[in-house]
């Protein structure tokens, strides 16, 4: 008998998508954590000559600041992997639709200035509502 295995097309193969997502998540987590560790060692070494005078309660050479940079890098890696995996599964929860561009013509500006009224005129009697007749 011939093989009766059904071949699942790639867009519907969920197992392959999960494998790709797990691989991507592990790689990005590890690489960004290593990048955060390197940045933490570079920026927050104990021999750093920069001491902030505005934050006296935080020591830049402390292990806490170096671990914080590792955690920041790990968070960046996991977040970028999550975004890529949600695109892979075509169900991004944070889809932001582009604003619709509506082609409305600009309103026409009609230059119709108001008539100039001369308030100081000898023909108009300001005390009476009826102008004098000539």
TrEMBL record:
Residues annotated as signal peptide: none
UniProt keyword Membrane present: yes
GO cellular component: MICOS complex
Keyword field: Membrane, Mitochondrion, Mitochondrion inner membrane, Transmembrane, Transmembrane helix
InterPro entries: Mic10
Localization per record: Mitochondrion inner membrane
Function of the protein: Component of the MICOS complex, a large protein complex of the mitochondrial inner membrane that plays crucial roles in the maintenance of crista junctions, inner membrane architecture, and formation of contact sites to the outer membrane.
Family: Belongs to the MICOS complex subunit Mic10 family.
Protein name: MICOS complex subunit MIC10
Organism: Malus domestica
